[in-house]
Amino acid sequence: xxxxxxxxxxxxxxxxxxHGTGIGVVIDGCPAGLSLDxxxxxxxxxxxxxxQTKYSTPRKESDTIQILSGIxxxxxxxxxxxxxxxxxxxxxxxxxxxxxxxxxxxxxFTYDQKYGFxxxxxxxxxxxxxxxxRVAAGAVACEILKTLGVEVCAYTKKIGSIAxxxxxxxxxxxxxxxxxxxxxxxxxxxxxxxxxxLQEQNSVGGIIECIIHGLxxxxxxxxxxxxDASLAKAIMSIGAVKGIEFxxxxxxxxxxxxxxxDSFMYxxxxxxxxxxxxxxxxxxxxxxxxxxxxxxxxxxxxIAKEQKTVTTTGQPTTIQVHGRHDPVIVPRAVVVxxxxxxxxxxxxxxxxxxxxxxxIQAFFKKIRSI
Amino acid sequence: xxxxxxxxxxxxxxxxxxHGTGIGVVIDGCPAGLSLDxxxxxxxxxxxxxxQTKYSTPRKESDTIQILSGIxxxxxxxxxxxxxxxxxxxxxxxxxxxxxxxxxxxxxFTYDQKYGFxxxxxxxxxxxxxxxxRVAAGAVACEILKTLGVEVCAYTKKIGSIAxxxxxxxxxxxxxxxxxxxxxxxxxxxxxxxxxxLQEQNSVGGIIECIIHGLxxxxxxxxxxxxDASLAKAIMSIGAVKGIEFxxxxxxxxxxxxxxxDSFMYxxxxxxxxxxxxxxxxxxxxxxxxxxxxxxxxxxxxIAKEQKTVTTTGQPTTIQVHGRHDPVIVPRAVVVxxxxxxxxxxxxxxxxxxxxxxxIQAFFKKIRSI
Amino acid sequence: xxxxxxxxxxxxxxxxxxHGTGIGVVIDGCPAGLSLDxxxxxxxxxxxxxxQTKYSTPRKESDTIQILSGIxxxxxxxxxxxxxxxxxxxxxxxxxxxxxxxxxxxxxFTYDQKYGFxxxxxxxxxxxxxxxxRVAAGAVACEILKTLGVEVCAYTKKIGSIAxxxxxxxxxxxxxxxxxxxxxxxxxxxxxxxxxxLQEQNSVGGIIECIIHGLxxxxxxxxxxxxDASLAKAIMSIGAVKGIEFxxxxxxxxxxxxxxxDSFMYxxxxxxxxxxxxxxxxxxxxxxxxxxxxxxxxxxxxIAKEQKTVTTTGQPTTIQVHGRHDPVIVPRAVVVxxxxxxxxxxxxxxxxxxxxxxxIQAFFKKIRSI
Amino acid sequence: xxxxxxxxxxxxxxxxxxHGTGIGVVIDGCPAGLSLDxxxxxxxxxxxxxxQTKYSTPRKESDTIQILSGIxxxxxxxxxxxxxxxxxxxxxxxxxxxxxxxxxxxxxFTYDQKYGFxxxxxxxxxxxxxxxxRVAAGAVACEILKTLGVEVCAYTKKIGSIAxxxxxxxxxxxxxxxxxxxxxxxxxxxxxxxxxxLQEQNSVGGIIECIIHGLxxxxxxxxxxxxDASLAKAIMSIGAVKGIEFxxxxxxxxxxxxxxxDSFMYxxxxxxxxxxxxxxxxxxxxxxxxxxxxxxxxxxxxIAKEQKTVTTTGQPTTIQVHGRHDPVIVPRAVVVxxxxxxxxxxxxxxxxxxxxxxxIQAFFKKIRSI
Lengths: 370, 370, 370, 370
Prior knowledge:
The structure is a homotetramer.
Chain A: E1 5-6, E2 11-16, E3 22-28, H1 38-48, E4 65-67, E5 71-72, E6 75-76, E7 81-86, H2 108-115, H3 130-147, E8 151-159, E9 162-163, H4 173-176, H5 184-199, E10 206-213, H6 227-236, E11 241-246, H7 257-260, E12 264-267, E13 270-273, E14 281-282, E15 285-286, E16 291-297, E17 307-310, E18 316-319, H8 330-351, H9 357-369
Antiparallel strand pairs in A: 1-2, 2-3, 3-7, 4-7, 5-6, 8-9, 8-10, 10-16, 11-16, 12-13, 14-15, 17-18
């Protein structure tokens, strides 16, 4: 139950703390022959890099990716790809006093309970910084998916009570918004709202929606490795995510079967659905329409506002968490959600290749005759 | 990526179709020495047994559990426990015409896409009947957890728009309600509502809440095997579940950090929290307070109301799904949610035994000196 | 670390004790579309069935296989295949006194040490009977491999000091010998030798050789999942196996590199090797020549000859293990070795489908256009 | 089936090629609280470092270990330990011509068959250099085992036909011999023999024996995760190993049950065995005596002697493998065998903590009361 590894065929193992030498990921099971270099991965990392707007931590990190193995003459070799990002801006002194008490909403207390002690610098392993390694791996997964016609796209759907209706937005606008919120009016309102939250030394939560386009039908599994169950695990493993829902999600509870069932039709030479309440998944298996899910992100637990807490020995005290923290985690988590979705989707896509004997027979017949 | 197995230390593998010989589960990694017999498991199964109220399928199944291995002289031996339930009321003829078209909201189409063909009788493997095997395994997990002071309790929180406030209910009332809804007034209203839904040949969704009491702090993992991520996968792998949220869940999106952080205090000789917005999990690890999550269940897809669909060759047609179907899945899914939660919690609880070298050393020192 | 499951894509989980209700196996990940019925599996099981010669236990078991799930209209559905063999001839009374002492060479003592107590009837889970479940699963693996042009063949190479030279034998003779020893003169000698061993209330060991024909090159993995490492685990997991060697095996220790390297040549339109000292595996990956390995089987530990031992409380005593035991395990283990090899080979063969991006792209391009 | 990861609870993932930036390993599941620094790991690495005698490759590598994560204030934190060794002496130009043909006995051909192309520099991932990462992880496993009273010790038993009898040797002499052969007379003979082999531009194989002392009884598993099966996989995954045997090993084939069964006795307050033909394992579970196994190592495939081969396009050619190669792999593999054994033993030792409910109950009772 080694907890830092995810995936069966395309498998990733992350390592590293917020304030150690660096963080990294080993990708095992990446197929041979993908064109890959640091610039491709760096582009993904730059989307979660801190210090880009006033709504993200002013911690300056270039988050420069290094490829340590697995690439030869510009292509993946099929062997493990080891990726590393060195920590640059550590300022551990900011954190030394954290060793003595427990920050509300943080994992300080639970780490001590599990391991007996903890690396208290910046949250150690439970820092959001760990997600940079996930994005590096996610970049590789996304690149492979693209060559198979599958595209994963996430955006900021909601910050506080400011929400956007994606059906009225242009996808291109996601990257135009500093908050990755494709309705630019809403995005501007959210920026203003975040300014006020910052001023109050507070933080706020939000919702990210993710849409996977081009996934063939038949991907996933009927029982424990359902497509939605696997995505749920991957997305819920992102630190601040507290819930996930597919298609109509929690709204399903108040609707009738006749409203929620997606009727089938035949169109453009294939079987399709009139609607997509299900979010593209039936019985844990993709139905060929878009996969749609939403994840809720809790407010950043680090706030400068004074809070009650206790020391590690149980003495009552108060705390104001200074340092460099985002008033909202949502925008920087968008590419993390995309990454975790891509890693999961790719793993299931590859595993689906062995579902049918006739497909397996055709594969080996072709391989033998090459 | 064998999709019918879940868990690492306490691991379950289910098998069986709705209309084959039977269904079953193999539990591997169950510790030796647990007192177990069929009556203990049967009591859990009886809670999801069909045919008990007019709001569940009239299909009559005794769901009698057989223990095929792993018990000797009334105790588990540490070797695999094989459990089987024979199918009794198969009436496959009800389903023969289903081979020709795709039921909206069902996995018929996606199965054909994945496997090339399907066992069309009663949904085959994607039938809700598969969950009986999960409950049999969950019973074993629950019994072990009880001996460790951990209790898993789920109930029907919502059917349609009728919801209950658990803080005002008595836990004992859960079993008093035919819908497992502990507010008996709401339960009666929900029954009335279900009657009208049935009359309209329709179905409705709902929400189940689950509370885990007595879990020690320090259980779970900081990265991919987070306690909440693992629970999310297990619960989302139940057929009709379309979303899950922990603690304040989706409401986190509209709240401030200062409202949502749970402050620590020292009380009754230990560090506790003033509130439990987090649902008992910080950084993927239990904090010693109650674990709380909610799962949304979609309306039963099988409805007698006429729906548009296509045949397997893409011809448009209409369908009325007759047969024996529940107008709401929620009540019978309550014990399934408990079971999946118990299986997951137990697996993580066992894995936590190896987190600290001093604990390991003490364990083996004691074993050697026995 | 659920110990009764083996394999990643094609995965098997066995259950059952020698003297319980029965034994069985759940196969998860079997591709859809394989023609399968009980008679196909039964033919494999009959090769290890007891009571066929005087050199095997006179315990009478029909070992009748039942298919409980996973087959529909004569074909595998892609969902778990549950197979069961009911125990018929249990005679548990033979074993009741075994609860009080430890048989030399058996797992009685180590079971008690691990689990605190044991099912003492006939060795419980560590009985050779557990291998019947492996053979049932192996039959399915062998049938799939056949459709892919891969054939697994094992035979008795040695019993005591009587050995056969396979290069001088006809493969057809394997089944002509009651000991599965294809040199029929040697087989007759071995039978005579076994008679004398039986008369002395003793037992003897031997060697099984296995040859896998038709495996494409490129199957296996360079690091921990090497083809030979994976086979070694699978074969060494058979109870009485105490060693395994590939190609020249232990003889490699006394030879020079110039003698042991297999030179490459180009012949019949492909790259081949002049010799096959390596046993068909280079760097953990198949090279297209035959895979060859040998496993050594220890003498049956159950012997009627008097042996010293202790009671479970440590009192010295003597023991004569009566009951129904084979004087040599080798012949009945031949099909078990084939089965474990087939299960392993198939799992690696399926996993190789995702090694190259161009193959993956071609696969999905074809699937989408169907 | 990510092939570069081994282990379930204590899990390692290696990465890196012979001639890339470096090689490394991520250890996941290492318990918190172990004192660890680079010097401890370096001592293990120095035992396999090249360039120490004339019988090992003159390639100069300091093999300096870096700890990138998982240690805080001198102790393991319970989170992944990332270890890296930078490659220093790459001289890739030695290898450029290797891109055009296939070296006999090497994985060049099989890599091309699996992946479509290969990193031809020094064998890439199948280089013996990958084992340095295993030794780094093995060092950590050995250190943990020591604190639990378990010691893993391997030595060179045989080079060519020169073998040593360990029962007549002093363990201390292992490190006194440049070949790790504890009979110093035999060691001197073997050195002389290796000189002649070198002069003939040839190489030779040998045997390593490994003894594990202090392992409690009850460790291992009865079915697929048998202690011997798990060790076999780990040891056979070392590149040049072509066979493994436990206790009497292949000699079991020629002996009688009465000779090979180890009788039990009661001595020094516990149940022990008169002999240890079984090599310390009964039914896949440790019996409290020493675990003993031997692995055979093939001759180094890289020899300067002229050999026949083909180019990658199938043209016949001859090859003399120059470069920097060991005439025998055995001595440098000794610490690799120890490492793989330690990693495997530790994983099974940790997993045994959950075998009995009474032990689990006592563990959590104690934890809760702390």
